[in-house]
Recover the amino acids of this structure.
């Protein structure tokens, strides 16, 4: 609840107020869990837009 209040809500409000419709993430599939199935480009219903995951298939060595 704390992260939602202090991070997510302000971020979503900002994105909507400036009219941005794409979020660029640094998520990678190798980080496990639900991230193993993230798409390169997916819907982001929070902002009625999209999430871009450009480094989803990078290895730890490539990130370093």
């Amino acid at each position: 609840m704390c992260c939602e209040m202090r991070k997510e809500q302000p971020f979503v409000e900002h994105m909507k107020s400036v009219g941005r419709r794409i979020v660029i993430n640094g998520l990678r599939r190798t980080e496990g869990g639900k991230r193993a199935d993230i798409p390169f480009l997916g819907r982001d219903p929070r902002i009625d837009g999209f999430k871009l995951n450009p480094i989803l298939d990078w290895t730890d060595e490539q990130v370093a």
About this structure: The beta strands are 22-24, 41-44, 49-52. Helices lie at 2-18, 60-63.
